[in-house]
Specification:
The protein contains three helices and four strands. It has 82 residues and is α/β, with parallel strands linked by helices. It is globular.
């Protein structure tokens, strides 16, 4: 099972992606958030295999969130969404 953590500020898109990914064999969305304000703590808590991250979000955006994440974890795979 591939564990996915999702960062997307648009609630409809976030919910749609969660349903699509979780409905696919071999994938599970472990959590979904509207910004990267707590990205390091969330990645530590959920231990995802893959992160899908929007770039333009309120608070800490995807670019800054990725920078903060890489200071803590250089192994997790991150796919940026636009």
């Amino acid at each position: 099972m591939i564990k996915v953590l999702l960062y997307e500020d648009n609630p409809q898109l976030r919910e749609g992606l969660t349903m699509l990914i979780s409905g696919s064999d071999g994938f599970e969305v472990v959590a979904a958030f509207k910004n990267c304000n707590n990205v390091v703590d969330e990645v530590e808590a959920y231990r995802p295999d893959v992160i899908l991250m929007d770039i333009d979000m309120p608070g800490i955006n995807g670019i800054e969130g990725l920078k903060r994440l890489r200071e803590y974890n250089s192994e997790v795979k991150v796919l940026m969404l636009t």
